[in-house]
DNA sequence: CTGAAAGCGCTTACAG
DNA sequence: CTGAAAGCGCTTACAG
């Protein structure tokens, strides 16, 4: 960052303090071997010249990078700045967790189709990867296997699956779906539509669907496949899916959207068709993004604990890097009641 | 990222291809000197062993880092995951712009009070810094001067001020304020309250205030200091400021909030006091965050072009790094009409 | 066109 | 407690 002739190195400090460069390094690394007086002289020199260790060199020597890479990928959209707000909240908590752990965080947006595995791991730019983003799991899975084969340390945010390559931290989507199902049942709703892909391609959404179904089954009911419409996590998809649902002409009294973005789009479509929420149709989302508080009516949704999630992702990745024991884990989901489902 | 014994280096490639390590490096850097046949052999070896260049070593040798650091700081709140959505949008566009320019992006959240200048620049972790965040400019200014003195390359997002240390890219806040003022006047509003700090401590907010004032002055009116209440960019501050405004008992027919977050808080306070928006009071914000579309009524606000902003920040920083000419610049503001101000 | 060698700025056994 | 030296994995003048 400085002009080249200015750049202060540990040798300059050594000269100024009248010691060897090795001793400067020892002081800077808090070695207990150094004499108190020597240490003081070195520290004074460091302050005087405003020196700080060159991390590139230090990391090269230590065979580490001191950096974690966060790869945020989005499947369909490459639309600038329209990142799912939920992931942005995750990004915030991951950044803080990494900083607390003494790691820098490299952030990169990727297309799911990109060749992201070699880039960070292989080039030693990062000690480990955090993968964030929903996409078609079945096409994504192969890349995870490549990462594993390559010896890359990584943790993925998403559904915890039995035979998955690598580890993941995720919300208990099954439980979240069940909470929504039970809530809607308690409100007297019976014909619950689901907006979102519900297949093994999108395990997070699928679990939400199945959780809701489980709640219905416990009451002797079941989700009706005729009321399920595919949608990815975007407002436009939610809008389109809700319109498609209405066009089907099947009666429904509730909409469970696989994400808040989908729910927001659905709210718009419902309003356009004169369907009153929550009087005629209950609507629930998933994620509790900031905008969920401001929709009309305010959206009942399932909150994932992003703050713990970030900490847990970093924690697990660090365990992997340090060779300690590490395992996939699920975080509890929490129902957030607002107005879009109606009074209990 | 690999276990140590596995790590492939350029020497392994050299052995396999039967050339010197220097030649491998030449091939990887696209040197025109290399014989076609030799190049092919090396490339085959690279593929076979799945090699990629160790960027730490390469950067050390080249005396660069290939990395830009984005320092996002927030003044009052250290509250997890409650980052201003506007900055998150900026983060998205900066990340993409950095990637397009071939730079990695290191992201870090900082407290304004932290000692952030030495950390990235001095330690050669980044070739340049992008500073993002509003805070008390007067206390912040000293740090900028330290960066300049230190020879650090940086670009700041914020107001372009005449005598500022370093460069900045910012929205034309004065113009944005003027647009709001003119719009409110056109709606017949005369007593416009301003929620947000309006002093040299917060130049962005101050410019928005002065822009609005300029519009009033052009009509022979002026902002009334009795209707200005300090607030930082948060919903809570906006709520508190609007309550304080109401408590003052001075009549007002419009609220210009210095940011959307403030506006959203104000909307809540106004609703609680039974003041109808937009019938009795017009409300306008600034930033056009995603949630602005979902408030009731939807928020009229001023959009900043985050997408160009990110590109321009990166562009300017790279010019600085390459020693080219670089200058502060302002981006135009754009009024986004929704329902919170009423019909024109 | 290619190789041997120096050097980027550190850390840490190895001697003393 | 301290110094001289090796080495992390590259890039690039310098010779040939």
UniProtKB/TrEMBL annotation, chains A, B:
Domain of life of the organism encoding this protein: Bacteria
Keyword list, A-Z: DNA-binding, Transcription, Transcription regulation
Segments forming domain HTH lacI-type: 8-62
Gene3D superfamilies given in the database record: 3.40.50.2300, lambda repressor-like DNA-binding domains (1.10.260.40)
KW DNA-binding (keyword) present: yes
GO molecular function ontology, one term from the record: DNA binding
Pfam families associated with the record: LacI (PF00356), Peripla_BP_3 (PF13377)
InterPro entries according to UniProt: HTH_LacI, LacI/GalR-like_sensor, Lambda_DNA-bd_dom_sf, Peripla_BP_I
PANTHER family the UniProt entry points to: ALANINE RACEMASE, LACI-RELATED TRANSCRIPTIONAL REPRESSOR
Name of the molecule in the record: LacI family DNA-binding transcriptional regulator
């Amino acid at each position: 960052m400085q002009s080249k002739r200015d750049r202060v190195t540990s040798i300059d400090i050594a000269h100024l303090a009248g010691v060897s460069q090795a001793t400067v390094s020892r002081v800077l690394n808090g070695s207990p071997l150094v004499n108190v007086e020597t240490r003081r002289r070195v520290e004074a020199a460091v302050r005087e010249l405003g020196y700080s260790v060159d991390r590139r060199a230090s990391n090269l020597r230590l065979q580490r990078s001191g950096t974690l890479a966060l790869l945020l990928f989005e499947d369909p959209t490459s639309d600038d700045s329209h990142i799912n707000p939920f992931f942005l909240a995750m990004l915030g908590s991951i950044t803080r967790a990494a900083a607390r752990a003494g790691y820098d965080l490299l952030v990169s947006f990727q297309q799911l189709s990109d060749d992201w595995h070699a880039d960070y791991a292989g080039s030693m730019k990062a000690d480990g990867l955090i993968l964030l983003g929903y996409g078609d799991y079945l096409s994504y899975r192969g890349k995870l296997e490549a990462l594993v084969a390559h010896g890359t340390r990584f943790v993925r945010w998403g559904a915890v699956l039995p035979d998955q390559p690598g580890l993941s931290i995720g919300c208990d989507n099954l439980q979240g779906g069940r909470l929504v199902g039970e809530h809607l049942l308690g409100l007297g709703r019976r014909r619950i539509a689901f907006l979102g892909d519900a297949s093994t391609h999108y395990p997070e959404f699928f679990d939400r669907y199945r959780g809701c179904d489980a709640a219905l089954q416990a009451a002797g009911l079941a989700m009706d496949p005729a009321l399920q419409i595919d949608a990815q996590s975007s407002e436009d998809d939610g809008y389109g899916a809700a319109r498609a649902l209405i066009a089907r002409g099947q009666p429904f009294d509730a909409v469970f959207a696989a994400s808040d973005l989908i729910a927001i789009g659905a709210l718009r479509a419902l309003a356009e068709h004169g369907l009153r929420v929550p009087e005629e149709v209950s609507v629930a989302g998933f994620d509790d993004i900031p905008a969920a508080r401001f929709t009309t009516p305010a959206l009942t949704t399932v909150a994932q604990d992003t703050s713990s999630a970030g900490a847990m992702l970093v924690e697990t990745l660090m365990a992997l890097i340090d060779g300690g024991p590490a395992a996939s884990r699920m975080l509890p989901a929490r129902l957030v009641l607002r107005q879009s489902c109606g009074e209990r």
